[in-house]
Amino acid sequence: MARSAAARSQTPALDAVKLRRLYAEMVRLRTLDERMMTLQRQGRIGFYGACTGQEAATLASAFALEANDWIFPALREGATMLLRGFDLTAYICQVFGNAGDELKGRQMPSHYASRSVNQVSWSSVIGTQLPQAVGVAMAAKLKGDSTVVMAYLGDGATSSADFHVAMNFAGVFKAPIVFVCQNNHWSISVPTARQTVSESIAIKARAYGMPGEKVDGNDVRTVYAACRAAVDRARAGEGPSLIECETYRIGAHSSSDDPTRYRDEREVAAWRAKDPIEGLRRVMEAEKCWDEKREATLRARCLEEVNAAIVAAEAELPPARETLFTDVVAGTPWHLAEQAAELAPFEMSGDRPGTVSH
Ligand SMILES: Cc1ncc(C[n+]2csc(CCOP(=O)(O)OP(=O)(O)O)c2C)c(N)n1
Ligand SMILES: [Mg+2]
Question: 191: which strand partners?
Fold first, then answer.
């Protein structure tokens, strides 16, 4: 739309250094997802949700944010925490739910979050993160600080009431928020065509009085430019935007899903040919800022880094049992103190070294 196109013309393009940085993050994420899915199949973790095929939409959008901005992810954007400097081993510990997990094993696997990088947990309950994100954006606006919120959603979430509530409120009150919809064509086994008959998801923005734009979600430069313009717009007090990133979920919905039961492998093959990582690699090679040697070094480094982090994470014990009682409520109410004292004399298998089983 005209407004965001104008803003976009002022958006600084990604230079070679930034392209290489994003590429390295994308390859690391792909490597991580591959290794973690293998761990799940080996029974070493219980559940995993991968981002495979959606690395450009996920990482290039978050790349448009400043460190003090907040991220409200949907189901596949955990790795924006890594982009923002969160430690890889601690990240993997969350999947194990062990003592190295900042969330103390209380969240579902893959539902990462950390205050240190201004990112809340994945929202498994589809769409609920959107009104919450608008609330945080409104708080920033009322406080007069410059924080922008990026709220992610899948195509499936556009059918939820929360999506419409959030879009309407954000539009009316000009909340400093950017909604990033990852239209990956599927909502588990439901195709986007059964989700909406609108000509796009982006067009829904018009009803709420905000700019909406559909972009090639597998092209980092396009995603970044659109998101950066929307973030700048929000920060300038001009209100919310909706960016629809068209992409594809190459893998299963999660480790609990078998997509061969409901989708045509030819469709998957067609999207594999549009792989965002391969696409960026071709761009960088054409622009002479990437070559075989850099590629080989990066791939080896990512594998080494991910494997080392898995080894470190797997060596952690389960969360100490006294953490059951911490961070539940402020202070220690009498009944929790009583329960903690009651539990203390019991030896639990999780307390012994070498008994970690996931
Ligand atoms: C309110 C609600 N309804 C249904 C579900 C079950 N569910 C989990 S993930 C999912 C699909 C989400 O699809 P989409 O929003 O397109 O995100 P994607 O998985 O494609 O990234 C559904 C229906 C849920 N978690 N919450
Ligand atoms: Mg989807």
Answer: 186
The structure tokens 């952690």 sit at 316
Ligand 1 binding pocket (C-beta < 6 A) is 74-76, 124-126, 154-157, 182, 184, 186-188, 249, 253
Taking the C-alpha atoms of residue 358 and residue 338, their distance in angstroms, rounded to an integer, is 29
Task: In whole angstroms, give the CA distance from residue 91 to residue 93.
Answer: 5
Taking the centre of ligand 1 as the mean of its atom positions, its distance from the CA of residue 154, in whole angstroms, is 8
Q: Which residues surround ligand 2, an ion (CB under 5 A)?
A: 154-155, 184, 187
**Atom 21, ligand 1: which residue's CA is nearest?**
154
Which positions are catalytic?
Answer: 249, 253, 262
What pLDDT digit, counting tens, does each position of 54-72 carry?
Answer: 999 999 999 999 999 999 9
Q: Is the pLDDT of residue 358 over 50?
A: no
Residue ranges covered by each domain of the chain: 2-316, 320-358
pLDDT at 313 over 80: yes
How many whole angstroms from 123 Cα to the centroid of ligand 2?
Answer: 13
CA-wise closest residue to 242 among 273, 264, 215, 269: 215
Does the pLDDT at position 197 exceed 90?
Answer: yes
Fold category of 2-316 in CATH: Rossmann fold (3.40.50)
CB distance 1 to 210 below 8 Å: no
Picking from 155, 154, 130, the residue whose alpha carbon sits closest to that of residue 76 is 154
CA geometry: angle 140, 145, 147, nearest 5 deg: 65
- Residue 2 confidence (pLDDT): 43
Name 42's Cβ contacts closer than 8 Å, sequence gap at least 6: none
Mutation test of ligand 1: which of 48, 160, 162, 188 has the most ligand atoms closer than 8 Å to its C-beta?
Answer: 188
Q: Tell me the per-residue pLDDT of 70-83, one tens digit each, with 9 for 90 and over.
A: 999 999 999 999 99
